[in-house]
């Protein structure tokens, strides 16, 4: 008895319009199909933009450097592109995401039965020594609090300045609570439990509750209270952090805008300079993990606070060579002027 073509059956179910697609038209319209297989079929606009940008970059590079059509690429074409990315001195995480996007592009084509196998299936970013301590990617407690207090959040009349208060709050969440850029971006008003003093954090791989410092919650409350007018819901909920420009007022702030704001502040504080590309929002998250470990020497506590899946990720903070000032929970001497 002949076997069923499961791949074709799945393609027909997921992509009912597949009979009208060939290899040429797929490359032109791949975005219509890609959105169904990324982020469980419900990608945010920010996520879609990131994936589309990486795939378009690959297609342009492929058209210029490969002598075959995109859906005729083999594994050696993908590895050549990976070598090209490494020659640009990009970080491992950046290369990893670019290759993930390409993998999803070919996965969509495969599910449409346009190709028999995914040429990017087992091609990943080359692993570096991920367990080595990153000794220059954190701040001391004093430097972190100085960075927080650099932002003047009130004008001469004593009124709060929304953008300044927002950016100070973002720094506090990253440096004191260990939040990632994507978690700041995705935070919703509905996720805040004022009575329980918790916030439900929606991560890329898993979600969990955090228990923020009282001063961080107080700052959050002030920020939400000064917003002018109601905040409209989007597909994910009511955004906490929004754009302040008149053109897109109250729209959810993008991950790129978060990085831009934080990097500008780090540069202003002489922490980030143009020749120190390793400094970014993740600097603040590393600071949180480092300060907690140096206070408690408790890796399990670091793991829970940073929401790591295993202790291996948390153990790098135990390998820091410098001694930090004490910092954790209620004992953290957070003083926001």
UniProtKB/TrEMBL annotation:
InterPro entries: CB (IPR044068), DNA_brk_join_enz (IPR011010), Integrase-like_cat_sf (IPR013762), Integrase_catalytic (IPR002104), Integrase_recombinase_N (IPR010998), Integrase_SAM-like_N (IPR004107), Tyrosine_recombinase_XerCD (IPR050090). Residues 134-337 form the Tyr recombinase domain. Residues 28-110 form the Core-binding (CB) domain. It comes from the Bacteria. It holds the Pfam family Phage_integrase. Keywords: DNA integration, DNA recombination, DNA-binding. One of its GO terms (biological process) is DNA integration. Gene3D superfamilies: 1.10.150.130, Intergrase catalytic core. Belongs to the 'phage' integrase family. This is Integrase/recombinase XerC.
């Amino acid at each position: 008895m002949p076997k069923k073509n499961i791949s074709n059956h799945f393609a027909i179910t997921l992509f009912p319009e597949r009979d009208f697609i060939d290899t040429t038209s797929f490359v032109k319209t791949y975005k219509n199909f890609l959105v169904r297989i990324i982020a469980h079929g419900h990608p945010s606009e920010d996520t879609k933009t990131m994936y589309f940008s990486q795939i378009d970059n690959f297609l342009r590079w492929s058209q210029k450097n490969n002598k075959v059509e995109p859906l005729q690429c083999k594994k050696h074409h993908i590895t050549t592109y990976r070598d090209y990315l490494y020659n640009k001195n990009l970080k491992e995480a950046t290369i990893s995401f670019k290759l993930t996007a390409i993998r999803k592009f070919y996965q969509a084509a495969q599910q449409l039965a346009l190709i028999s196998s995914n040429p990017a299936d087992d091609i990943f970013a080359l692993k570096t020594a991920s367990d080595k301590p990153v000794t220059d990617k954190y701040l001391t407690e004093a430097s972190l609090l100085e960075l927080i207090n650099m932002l003047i959040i009130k004008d001469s009349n004593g009124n709060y300045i929304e953008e300044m208060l927002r950016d100070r709050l973002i720094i506090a969440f990253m440096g004191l609570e260990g939040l990632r850029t994507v978690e700041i971006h995705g935070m919703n008003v509905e996720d805040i439990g004022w009575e329980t003093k918790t916030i439900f954090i929606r991560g890329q791989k898993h979600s969990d509750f955090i228990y923020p410092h009282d001063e961080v919650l107080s700052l959050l409350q002030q920020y939400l209270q000064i917003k002018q007018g109601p905040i409209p819901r989007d597909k994910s909920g009511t955004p906490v952090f929004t754009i302040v420009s008149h053109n897109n007022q109250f729209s959810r702030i993008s991950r790129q805008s978060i990085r831009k704001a934080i990097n500008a502040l780090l540069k202003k504080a002489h922490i980030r300079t143009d020749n120190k590309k390793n400094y970014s929002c993740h600097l603040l998250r590393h600071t949180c993990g480092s300060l907690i470990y140096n206070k408690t020497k408790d890796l399990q506590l670091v793991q829970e606070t940073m929401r790591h899946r295993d202790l291996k990720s948390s153990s790098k903070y135990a390998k820091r060579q410098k001694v930090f000032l004490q910092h954790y929970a209620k004992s953290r001497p957070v003083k926001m002027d």
